Amino acid sequence: MANEPVSLPNERLNRFEDKLDQVLELLRELQIRQNDTHAAVVGLCRDQAHDAEVVAHVQTRVDTLAAKIERIERRLDLRDA
User: Fold this and answer.
1) CA-to-CA distance for 52 and 59, rounded, in angstroms?
2) What is the pLDDT of residue 79?
3) How far, in Å, CA of 81 to CA of 70, rounded?
4) What is the mean pLDDT of the chain?
5) What are phi and psi for residue 72, nearest 5 degrees?
6) Run of H or E including 24
7) Residue of 15, 73, 44 whose CA lies nearest to 7
8) End-to-end CA distance of the chain
């Protein structure tokens, strides 16, 4: 049984199936990498939105402080003409 001749079409079919298995495994790996990349991009977008929120909050505080400084300067008559 171990010495049975393998027909050429069966041998080619086996090689084709092996190659197909390799291609399918590569596709699975690429899908995993694509999912990881997608998750990273979503995380970057979330971080960017958070950064924009922080900048807006800081700008609001700066505007509030600038208004207070102007009011103090006016009350102390320190404003330049």
Assistant:
1) 10
2) 75
3) 13
4) 92
5) -65, -45
6) helix 8-75
7) 15
8) 108
